[in-house]
Automatic annotation (TrEMBL):
Domain ABC transporter: 6-246
Record-linked Pfam families: ABC_tran
Any GO MF annotation of the entry: ATP hydrolysis activity
PROSITE patterns in UniProt: ABC_TRANSPORTER_2
Source organism of this protein record: Serpentinimonas raichei
UniProt keyword annotations, A-Z: ATP-binding, Cell membrane, Membrane, Nucleotide-binding, Transport
Keyword Disulfide bond carried by entry: no
Protein name: ABC-type uncharacterized transport system, duplicated ATPase component
Example of a GO cellular component annotation carried by this entry: plasma membrane
UniProt record similarity statement: Belongs to the ABC transporter superfamily.
InterPro entries: AAA+_ATPase, ABC_Ni/Peptide_Import, ABC_transporter-like_ATP-bd, P-loop_NTPase
Source superkingdom: Bacteria
Length: 257
């Protein structure tokens, strides 16, 4: 059996002198797997994402446990190795995609830079743009000339060029209307299918889980309270926190989940 892409064992994160925010988390993520990370507000989803990206800032600190990336212990990575891993191995798509785009450079220039770095042929930029359903004139625009949904899709195009092994999508559709959210989800799925990357989908939106996730992991106050195949979770959640999420989504969706 090959090593899982990510192997997390007894991972605990604490705010210095304060509470434990992630409490002995243990789970695996296989290459190409689509895992949804669920949990109410403050459950620890974003702290986990920061930890996986080596971006924990004081007062937060890694207290104990291990994270292995393709068998290699991440706590032993140098800052140069973390830097190389972010972007090349692990790519983050988050709620404010504008922050990853340089406001002074055109989208086309930024995508070309990424394509060059990843040694893709010149035509790859337009192919990536087409796959995420963005029209070619977007290449001449700057970040402030794009809607939130378009920026998310530009990030999906970037991931297509970089071909990371893992994409972490942190609430990618939370601030978008339904139609735009659907466009972003299609782009995300097209990118995932084209690259074969694993997807860690952090979300409150169970429609995303139904459409995109194979497995779910539910966090409550920093602890994993449920791990289940997505389909089983959506029909019969086993934990109290999971049941509350499904019930709230059913109520909002008029029972259509
Ligand atoms: N820099 C920090 N210092 C101290 N506590 C923090 C820090 N960042 C997050 N926390 C705490 O960690 C806990 C988990 O926060 P986190 O942002 O991971 O929650 P979340 O599950 O992503 O919630 P949401 O869905 O609302 O984004 C919260 O109690 C939060 O207050």
């Amino acid at each position: 059996m090959p090593d899982p892409l990510l192997q997390i064992r007894e991972l605990s994160v604490q705010a210095a002198g304060g509470p434990v925010l992630l409490d002995r988390l243990t789970f695996d993520l296989a290459a190409g797997e689509r895992l949804a990370l669920l949990g109410g507000s403050g459950a620890g989803k974003s702290v986990l994402a920061q930890c996986l990206l080596g971006l924990l800032q004081p007062p937060l600190c890694w207290r104990s446990g291990s994270i292995r990336w393709q068998g290699q212990e991440m706590s032993l990575l140098s800052s140069k190795q973390w830097h190389a891993l972010r972007g090349n191995g692990i790519f983050l798509i988050f709620q404010s995609p504008g922050a990853l785009l340089d406001p002074l450079l055109s989208v086309g220039y930024q995508l070309e830079q990424v394509a060059q770095r990843a040694q893709r042929p010149p035509a790859a930029v337009e192919q990536a743009l087409a796959l995420v359903q963005l029209p070619a004139p977007v290449l001449h625009r700057h970040a402030h000339q794009l809607s939130g949904g378009m920026k998310q899709r530009v990030l999906c195009a970037m991931a297509l060029l970089l071909r990371p092994q893992l994409v972490i999508a942190d609430e990618p559709t939370s601030s978008l209307d339904d139609e735009t959210a659907q466009e972003v989800l299609c782009a995300l799925l097209a990118m995932q299918q084209a690259t074969g990357c694993a997807l860690l989908l952090i979300t409150h939106d169970l429609r995303l889980v139904r459409q995109h996730a194979q497995r779910v992991l539910v966090l409550e106050r920093g602890r994993i309270v449920e791990q289940a195949p997505a389909e089983r979770f959506l029909t019969a959640p086993a934990s109290r926190a999971g049941a509350a999420l499904v019930q709230a989504a059913r109520w909002l969706d008029g029972q259509s989940l």
